[in-house]
Amino acid sequence: MKIKIPHTLVLLFLLMIFSLALTWMLPSGGFSFEENEMGIEVVVPGSYEVFEEKQYLSPASLFTVVPRAFADAQGIIFFVLIIGGALAVVRETGAIDALLGKLVQNFGDLPGPLLFITMFAFAAASATLGMAEEYIPFAIILVALCIALRMDAVTAIGTMVVGYGIGYGIAIMNPFTLLIAQDVAGLQPTSGMRFRLILAVPLLTIGFIHVWRYAKKVQSDPKSSLLYGIDQDKKDQVFDYPEMTGSRIVVLLITLIVLVLLVLGIWLQGWYLIELGAIFLALAIVVGIVSGIGINKTAETFGRGAAELTATALLIGFARSIALIMEDGEILHTVVHALSTPLSFAGSEIAAVGMLFIQSMLNFFIPSGSGQALVTMPLMAPIGDLVGVSRQVSVLAFQLGDGLMNMVVPTNPVLMGILGLAGIPYDKWFKFIFPLLIQLLIISSIALAFAVWIGYS
């Protein structure tokens, strides 16, 4: 019997109902807070108390909380829509496709370096711009490329998805996961970047070795392919890349400059959602003018790109509703207290690893990174305070659990869309990716324990 997973919005609404039920069953309670040396309010360990008066919410709260949650998360929601529109304009110029074509032209006879550069590019785009859905159109191109190089579709999609998953895991400045999680945790945007950059090296190295070993095995013996005997209609497809024109080079340079400005602005000027949204809006306008696609085409493309992320904006609002219900019912701290108690007996390092596996399991039910950040970080940040895990480590546990599991959970629409286009059955993909996932989770667990040990904050 085939089990059909409900839509993510349905899952979030069910979690809202569950949260409301918890407000009726659990005692209301709360912790005391104090400012740490960084000026961040953190939970005082051992300060949890049950309130004398119990808060009971009505079933109508399920509906009134949603508009409140959208208002509460409006900064993030509008930023998501703006960045979606800006990235759509950049894609419309063909600059990204032309860049991929140049890589194929220059490294077509060097499949190893080509695959590594491609994986690195996907990882970098996910770690910085939070790109994911944008990769789906590249699936057929990469499959055709790898088949032409005597590899298979699993190699092609492995290069893409492993880069995408690790990119989300290390999240240098991903606006959909890192910035949201750090905002909820009360941390400076993009803080702790150095540790994540260092962690990217072993994760990407292990990911590439796994894909390249498989690719070489298929090149040597086509029968060793996981897809051997499965008809694939991608073999005879002809693909063509747009020419790398001067205007497209300028578009790529402008985009790179914007990324540098974002980092400098966040570090030196304390920029956040308003400033970041403004610079992405400026990026869309400048790229539209420089590329020559025209003002009207730029506006149409911007609107279409923003519309493509409407579902993500809805997920953010509904995810925020869950935390609001628990806050209104005064049980959020009660849940934190219950979850932190067993972790507190394990020691800080083990507790951090426990957070990683909790986030990994939750990714099956909430595959949206931004949604998961808003659902789990209100719980994980104070849990970290209680068990001796810094909020930066709590955020890192969320990033790794969310990003790495994106490569395997069947509830991830991006993954399933890519596999569908490439003609890869999920069971074949699972057989390929699961051994790598175990390796990455082990390295991530060691990294989290080490982060606790060195006082990563």
Explain what this protein looks like in three dimensions.
71% of the residues lie in helices and 2% in strands. By secondary structure, it is mainly α. It has one domain. The strands form two sheets. A two-stranded antiparallel ribbon has the order 1-4. About 1% of the residues have low confidence.
Strand-helix topology:
Layout: H1 8-25, E1 29-30, E2 33-35, E3 41-43, E4 49-50, H2 61-72, H3 74-92, H4 95-107, H5 111-129, H6 138-148, H7 153-170, H8 178-185, H9 193-220, H10 246-269, H11 273-291, H12 295-308, H13 310-328, H14 332-344, H15 348-365, H16 369-387, H17 391-405, H18 413-422, H19 426-454
Antiparallel strand pairs: 1-4, 2-3
Helix pairs in contact: 1-13, 2-13, 3-11, 3-12, 3-13, 4-5, 5-7, 6-7, 7-9, 7-17, 7-18, 8-16, 8-17, 9-19, 10-11, 11-12, 13-16, 14-16, 15-16, 15-17, 15-19, 16-17, 17-19
Q: Which short descriptors sum up this protein?
A:
457 residues; two-stranded antiparallel sheet; mainly alpha; two-stranded antiparallel ribbon
